[in-house]
Amino acid sequence: AQAQADVAAAEAALALARLEYDKLNLRAPFAGVVAQIELHPGELAGPTTPALLLGDFSAWHVETVDLNEIDAARITTGATATVTFDALPGLSLPGRVQAIYPHGVDRLGEVVYTTVIELLQSDPRLRWNMTATVTIEAP
Are both 42 and 79 inside the same structural domain? Predict the structure, then answer.
């Protein structure tokens, strides 16, 4: 009986150790590409410290932060857009307005809105933070 109790206690301790070990592993919320590692072995991380940047390159979005209030009032979600990139001359990709943030910010005396453009096509040369020019077709 004592041996069985010892075995049960050891199995419980092993199950607890496995749970604790599992907490040490990072699991991505989606399949993607590690773009940058922020946390290195031996470093301590706080609850808001990112461990890495994970990207899903199957879909691209471009954010523009300079849509003025006059254009924001005329443009609607779903409007077509064309996106070009400084680093990729000759490349022009179609897009669609996915969102216009409802709250504008004052930038140098002008109220501007963040706009999210969903790219409808991709290019393998695209990288995060590339400078892009967005042209949105207003109705």
Answer: no
> Does residue 51 share a domain with residue 25?
yes
Coil, helix or strand at residue 136: strand
Instruction: Tell me how many domains the chain contains.
Output: 2
pTM score, whole prediction: 0.70
Reported as a single tens digit per residue, the pLDDT across 17-42 is: 999 888 877 788 888 889 899 988 88
For 64, the token pair is: 């523009």
Domain range spanning residue 66?
61-136
From CA 14, how far away is CA 114, in angstroms rounded? 51
Other C-beta atoms closer than 10 Å to the C-beta of 112 total 19
Whether 74 and 27 map to the same domain: the answer is no
- pLDDT digits 0-9 by tens, 81-134: 999 999 999 999 999 999 999 999 999 999 999 999 999 999 999 998 999 999
The residue assigned the tokens 């004592």 is: 2
